[in-house]
Amino acid sequence: MRAVVFSAVLCATSLQAAGIALTGATVYRSPEAPAIADAALVIQDRQIAGIGPRASVTIPKGTRVLNCSGESIVAGFWNSHVHILTPGLLHVSGTSAVELNGQLDQMLDRWGFTTVFDIASVLDNTIALRHRIENGEIRGPRILTVGEPLWTQPPVYILDFLNANRIDMQVVATPSEAAARVRALAQGGADGIKLFTGSMQGEGKVANMALEMVSAAVAEAHLRHLPVFAHPQNSSGLEVAIAGGGDILAHTAPEFALMSRAEMSFPQILAALTTNPAGRFGYSGRAGRIATGLDADLTVLEGDPAKDITALSRVRLAIRGGRIIYPAN
């Protein structure tokens, strides 16, 4: 197994050193910038090294050139609501790279996601997955995580899953317990905090988190510059999430076709997938746009989403940090 991992890392490293050039596509650098038709985009050392009309960009000798004529390139997509809780991703340390690549391809990579925010999982397991991705052992997106969520009672629809997989996600009962859990999650590497300000208990009943607990958890999180996600479930959960200072409400992202039917323009939809989350989570200086010197996080699409919004779901390539993470190559 070690020889396989070492070989994979060597292959990824040599590919990054050689560089990649994407030619012939229409490039949408950001929601506001004009498109570049018949462009050339050069990737070197995990970053964007050059971008412009093909005739004006010099492609270094030895660069791997991919013809993207008839396609479009946008900044790598963000998904700010995923759960690293699928059975195939629950035991990262004991799962092969081949299996994990397949799981990540199915769930994230093939949709063009190069950064995701996991908002409920087992923290240690998700951190282990992140490490294996960052080490180049497996292909996958940048993963930000909240780890285990805070709730006064777990939602009824997840109880069987937790029991079947022997996952213990404890409840919090007081403001001091909520604050202590936030501190522990932060020390464990969490990038944010998730509060179930409303937790479904069946038969229309909802267990709501008290405002004092929400406020204590938010204060502790903000002290560490961590964003707070809230799952409100009902109006009471919504009210305490807002009053307690929560930052983000979960369950608000529609799919592309619905966004278009709601009369959102292509630039607005593109912003929702790229610049908006990158800015909200502090990555606007390195991701969310296509520009020289930024991370080479890119999504290559079949077709032109400015003309056909469903092209956003037709992903040819997903590139994360200059490495092609989908499809396998």
- Secondary-structure arrangement, i.e. CATH architecture of the largest domain: Alpha-Beta Barrel
CATH fourth-tier homologous superfamily of the largest domain: Metal-dependent hydrolases
Fold-level CATH name of the largest domain: TIM Barrel
Number of domains: 2
Low-pLDDT parts are: 1-17
- Helix content percent band: 25-40%
Helix-strand topology string = HEEEEEEEHEHEHHEEEHEHEHHHEEE
Beta fraction? 15-25%
Shape: globular
How many strand segments?
Answer: 17
Side-by-side strand order of the widest sheet: 2-6-15-16-17
List keywords for this structure.
10 helices; 329 residues; 31% helix; 17 strands; Urease, subunit C, domain 1; TIM Barrel; 5-stranded mixed β-sheet; globular; alpha/beta; disordered N terminus; 2 domains; 4-stranded mixed β-sheet
Question: What do these coordinates show?
Answer:
With 329 residues, this protein is an alpha/beta fold. It has 2 domains: 2-76 and 289-326, Urease, subunit C, domain 1 (Roll); 78-249, Metal-dependent hydrolases (TIM Barrel, Alpha-Beta Barrel). The chain has 10 helices and 17 strands. It has helices spanning 2-18, 97-107, 123-134, 159-164, 175-187, 211-223, 235-243, 256-261, 266-273, 275-280, and strands spanning 20-23, 26-28, 39-44, 47-53, 64-67, 71-75, 77-82, 113-118, 142-145, 193-195, 198-202, 205-208, 228-230, 248-249, 298-302, 315-320, 323-326. It has a 5-stranded mixed β-sheet with strand order 2-6-15-16-17. Strands 4-3-1-5 form a 4-stranded mixed β-sheet. A 3-stranded parallel β-sheet has the order 7-8-9. Strand 16 (315-320) and strand 17 (323-326) form a beta hairpin. Helix 5 packs parallel to helix 6. The longest helix is centred in the first third of the chain and has 17 residues, at 2-18. The model is unreliable at 1-17 (pLDDT under 50).
